[in-house]
Amino acid sequence: MRNNWFCLQKRSSSRLRWFVVACIALGLNCFGCQETNSNRICLVSSLPRTGVSRQVSDEVVRGIRLAIEEVRARVGRFTLEYRDLDNSASVSGQWTSEGEAANARLAVQDPDVMAYIGTLNSGAARVSMPILNYADLLMVSPANTAVGLTKPGLGIPGEPDVYQPSGRLNYMRVVPADDLQGPLAADWAFGRGVRRVFVIDDAGIYGQGVASLFADRCREKGMEVLAHVSIDPQAAEFKSFVGSVMSADPDLVYFGGSARTKGGQLARDLVSAESEAILLVSDGCRTKAFLDAAGATSLEGRCFATSAGLSPQQSDCSEIMFLKRYQQKYGTCPSNAAIHGYEAARLAIRAIADVGRKDRRAIVESAFASRVDDGVLGAWSIDENGDTTLQEVSVSVVRNGTFEHEEVVPAAGIGKKNVSR
User: In Å, how far are 111, 136, 159, 278, 375 from 105, measured between CA atoms?
Assistant: First the structure.
């Protein structure tokens, strides 16, 4: 779940490097100016705590807190403290570069902070990654899916090296990247008999990237891509645009974007125009905010969403310990966001416990060497680039006013795509 980062796809790699240099300069100001507490280790998260992304962030934080409760807030001889940091502006309800840089700077300056859980948005990660990297601070994302954050040659020129000024890796994520989500969404559509698709994105780096990968895979599978259009996320409505979609008569309409970039309004206008096409949206729309904006009742059984990684079956809530604990505490089965928040925090906690001291570099290396055999959604580890070895995408359908798990699409046959712009 990410958003447009200063229209980054239009910027040269040299301008990207200047931005990263500025982030480092800002982030490392006063590095090391706080005193350490010998008996405390701190885990921080940086997420948007206001606006349309708050619901997803709340779920991530619930997962983190359960991971901390699981070890009774202790790691060896240390008391484990948690800080829930906000990288959003209260006025806009969106993450800001200033907010994310401030959070990264706060973490770097505190010698008791040994891990940073974040970010929700890939654009925000691009701000904090070089700051945290220079300080060798472990960064684990429960949600970033932009391919360039970890995969050489698949993103903007200069990625991911530009985020690694120290020359060492410190960033990892527990969700698969968009080079799986887009193509596997197309495989799912083909398997349902879809042959004519109309592809829409929100003009952001995430939306355009995942939509382009979806469209490319559709062509590989022999489906007809009727059009690939970017909408203006500042528009109030899309009724006239929906007319052109209807005229094309697609079997399926695909939207790459989020609730924040008007995915819900687009869905509402498609329904109002009495479109009979299947609506398939990327994981940025798999939120209550999207359903509220679109009108959940009108999407019943006809709107599907992909999400990186596996989703738990509803029946699993009584069988898997974490899911059972989550349901007992919060009265509902956890979402993917909660599960990935839990797994991100647990990976960090186990790496800290393995090292047994406040040594940021050693903790990073321990996390990279970890293998999780008792993961909520199966066994996994982190590869040499910082990516999870889990290689599946889940599909959910709107049912009873919410997204419910439908099926899992495996990654067999998917090749890597170049999404540089």
Answer: 12, 13, 22, 45, 31
